Amino acid sequence: MSATMGLMNGQEFGARHGCSGQSPLHAIIGESESSATVILSTTTGPFKIPVISPSATCECLSNRKDYPSFFRTIASDYHQSRALVYIVKHFGWSWVGAVNSDNDYGNNGMAIFVKTAQEEGICVEYSVKFYRTEPEKLKKVVDTIERGTAKVIVAFVSFVEMGLLIDQLSIQNITGFQMIGVESWITTKNYITPNSFHSLGGSLGFAVRKINIEGFADYVRKAFWDTAIPCLQEERNSSRYVLSCSRYEDIFALNNYTEDVSEQRYASNVYKAVYTVAHSLHRLLKCKEQEGCEKSLTIQLHEVVEALKKVNFTMKKGNHVWFDSTGSAVAQYEVVNWQQDSDGSFQFKPVGYYDASLPPDQRLELNTKEIIWTGGQLKKPKSVCSESCPPGTRKAAQKGRPVCCYDCIPCAEGEISNETDSVNCKQCSGEYWSNVEKNKCVLKAVEFLSFADIMGIVLVFFSLFGVGLTVMVAILFYSKKDTPIVKANNSELSFLLLFSLTLCFLCSLTFIGRPTEWSCMLRHTAFGITFVLCISCVLGKTIVVLMAFKATLPGSNVMKWFGPSQQRLSVLAFTLIQVLICVIWLTMFPPFPYKNMTYYKEKIILECSLGSTISFWAVLGYISLLAFLCFILAFLARKLPDNFNDAKFITFSMLIFCAVWITFIPAYVSSPGKFTVAVEIFAILASSFGLLFCIFAPKCYIILLKPKQNTKQHMMGKITS
Question: I need a labelling partner for 170 at 20 to 30 A (CA). Which of 39, 382, 553, 592 fits?
Fold first, then answer.
């Protein structure tokens, strides 16, 4: 503080000189550390004395309200802290540890880093700090690093503190951590030794960019040798030179060595600081080439501050120098990597750069192939709390832990995630469903009863078997049409019944195969009409049995009212009613193909929508009415005499018919998918086989196996068997 006040007042300032209005001091170049610069700027601020620092990077100094006259030829840590986040994110590290020095430099820099890391989805496992005078805290920091699971450590540490940390890491032989450093220590030659390299080899960090200043290397070399070895100024042949310099002969060979001068990265910032002051004073003194400056002008300190704000010049090497609105230089860093050469020497290998003046997507450039990682590895280390969730899964946060710690939960059925580390699974829409891996929506499987299905093949077989059996019965009856048993059973209605049964067996085939607009309309109408035709024939046969018995009574002429013509008309009339119902159905609400996606979520049931449920049940209801009427009449005629009485066989066939269709209703409603169609086909085939066997099997048995009973006398019951 005393040095600062003395510098501000000047060495020869006294009462006798009075106040001339000219400040004895126009600018201060320094300090190097942020904490010291904060103190200096706070002290000089009220006097508006400009302070230009070549290396104080704390973001706190960007506050123009608290430090209105502060400038620096280095970038603010705001940019470096964010650049640290970007480099961590670039390499896919989402789980890091953080260490900072407990001073203005470390605390402000780490605060910006942690905040930006959270915004970018990077989790900080721990954030610990220590100061150079706190050895106990330093030990706790080292213990935290060793116990932590994060393999990447961001060290926002000042020069002195980093030296202490490196010593402790080397002593305790802590290795395997990828260190990410900052400009304060990453290019310090003293820190890269065999012991420290064992722990910190492969470190990566941001350094102040190298700028070669013309003539600076020769200047430094001459200044060093003239100061360190004064004897070199003596004449070489003098006895005094021999006495004074003989002991330095071993190092004279290094007289022209200047390779390490380029690593004096902050020297260019000091150079810039001097020139910014010079340019400001030149502007205020109105200096011109050949004419010189107006030295009589009085320069006020606030004028120097304003002149510094407008500084804008280019150095000999093309580097542009200017200050932004916070008084800082543009952020330009070199990314360096601690590497060891084949000869065992160490170097700071440039592997990229960061330039805040470029567009956001171009600011960070890295040559990953040139990087040697911790432990001399060529493969990038991993540092994550949880492994990435592959496509087909989603992230589920672990309770009480950071967002980077999560479990990978497989997507539910019908949902997918096609990205790594997906937060949510997307629902497949409409006709799509998730594949086995849950990473792609694919078209749902379409299900219908096809001819290629085993169930379809079995049903087709029984359908064609029924057709074949019916045709065989028809051929048998035709060949025996003149025999009493065929004549007695009303051969015309029998052949019509066999024809309708054939259609019933065949109509079941329309239910198999991919539903189309035509097949949907055909299957239900064909089923309804053929079954009404079939039941009408059975009903006709039943009425014939009743009429035949009544005709045997004395004085009865009832058969003339129900002869062959009336029988045909009755069958036609009953069938036309069903035809009318079907025409109305097809005209107003025709069945149509429908993709049922509600019963199964994972597949589409391709079925025929009824169009009108009322019409469908009207068709079934009419068939049921005729069947019930037939059953009642057959039941009443079951005990009538004569061997040709069909009533008991018709009764039994109607019982089977009704039983099949009564059980069909709950089975049809509850069956899923293609089994609904199979149930309907089964009902058609079962009832058709029931009619065929119950009505025609006894006659075929007599024709084929008991031909002696196929006589008129036996039919009339006059011969006992």
Answer: 382
